[in-house]
Amino acid sequence: MQAFTEWVEYISGIVWGPPMVIAILGVGIFLMFRLAWMPVRKTAYGFSLLWKGRTGQGGGDITPFSALMTSLSATIGTGNIVGVATAIALGGPGALFWMWMTALVGMATKYAEAVLGVHYRETDASGKRIGGPMYYIKNGLGQKWVWMGFAFAFFGTITAFGIGNMVQSNAIADALDNQGIQPIYSSIVLTVLVGIVLIGGITRIAKWASSLVPTMAVLYVTAGLIVLLAHITEIPAAIATIVSSAFTGTAASGGFAGAAVWAAIRFGVARGIFSNEAGLGSAPIAHAAAKTDNPVRQGHIAMLGTFIDTLVVCSITGLAIVVTGVWTTGETGADLTTMAFEATLPGSEYILIAGLIVFGFTTILGWSYYGEKCWQHIFGLKAILLYRLLYLVSVFLGPMALLWKGGAEEGINLIWLVSDVFNALMALPNLVALVLLSPVIVRLTREYYSQQR
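Predicted structure:
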């Protein structure tokens, strides 16, 4: 197992090398400039549209608000608690800065994805609206690019079983295992609960997401703010450390082994993408199902997902870890975040456990829909039942990694590494499509604001 883990780590290092980092940040910067920084300037307008989008107007299956909650259910997950801590543990405080940069330009990327997702969506044989990169590649770029849409769907299907499924169920089981609940029981309960929701399709997934995500997010953010308020005088120094470490690296300190600038960039960008999925191409699959008659309106709502996920939730986690100084202890993952919260707010361990469980569960639900639509694109509508059965099997197997020879840590690391690899492979076709279809994004945006005036 160790040899296989090392091989996967080698592959992850290649796919997340300089070219991928440049591609993700470069496309986000390119779109941000083409849109004249509109995503940043119109953030408040996006929130106003989100409030109005609780009902929805136009063809679709779920409200614009529910579409964002479904998207957030797939992004606000273990990446916000475990992923941020892992990035700082491996790349130093500077990794948080690169997560911020990824999120900032990622707002433009997420906006562009949703605009294209709604603009080029289709209606399947069951009457449901379907969309995403595989459809805007086919309908926007033409038949000669269909192979690229197929590649996205293939990588998206595999990614759903890793990043959206086994990683999440594994993290949930690990948190419960620390409380004395054996992985086999976590596997059984999770599989049953996910199965109950999957039967209802996107409508039931959106309903659960719209209830669980806002409630748990508010609880987690409140606990994080209490920690930060208790260390409010240390926040300026913490931010200075984060920014300076992003460009100079981090020296060894305590249990922290030290990290070069490239480590901060690599792990910051990788965990940032894992957290908010901007550029990955997953979010437009959910937004394509929204009840809206205008792709630009849905794009404004979609870009808030990146803002909320990384610039709010991940920032609170990262700042709590830095201001409390626990990042120098050598701990990583959920244990590091727990130390940061417990140092100020005794008993917050249970809030983090609840967050891991709820966020992980909703991520499994959101990614079940993403993977299903990718699977449907490849194998057709009739093959969905098989996909759902395989997905439930993966939910069951995720916690079993804790029992692999070599221990829980090796199993968790392997799943994270595999997820990183398929993250990159999934993003490539989508990034190419976003650049080639950028004139359409700009044209639709200008037409919308021309009509508003």
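Summary: The mean pLDDT is 88.
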